[in-house]
Amino acid sequence: QAQLVESGGGLVQPGGSLRLSCAASGIIFSAYTMSWYRQRPGQIRERVAYINMHYDTNYEDSVKARFTISRDNAKLTVDLQMDSLEPEDTAVYYCVAGLTATPSRGDLWGQGTQVTVSS
Asked: What is the pLDDT of residues 32-45, one digit of tens each?
């Protein structure tokens, strides 16, 4: 059964760091583009970063130079290192697997992990 499980969320002070991790199972992980989305309170979900099968990466403008996405095809994991966190980064973060970088209804979603940035 295909599944994505996120971990690493929590409460952090502004300026702090968190590292999110997503463990995949039941998919040919190396063939998938892996993305991190977030949904901030009262807002629609947005993609913040993705990494494709060639290790090419892409970031949403507000997180460039602060967030880093990486993948380990041997461990079937994708991580999101988040530095210099701001209160505006507070959101539920989701791991998503897709066969291409273009969002699709067939993409596989994790259950999400809460990140709260507050003093």
From this structure: 999 999 999 999 99
